[in-house]
Please model this.
Amino acid sequence: MNEECFALQENGECRALDKNCHGHCAFYKPVWKHKKERRLANVKLSALPVEKQIHIADKYYAGCMPWEEEME
Model:
């Protein structure tokens, strides 16, 4: 792996799995791929009806809609 994983912290711990990363992780994903997938997910979220967006924001994002900020 020559690209840094999106979840790898400076101390070697994994933000995604809450443990240390020791080499070949099955959940490894390069930063560029994580950003691309996040962007695509935000496009899909933005296309949902407003009521559904509010429900998702309340349940998973403490009432915020971060996908709106990225779409601007």
Summary: The chain is about 45% helix and 5% strand.
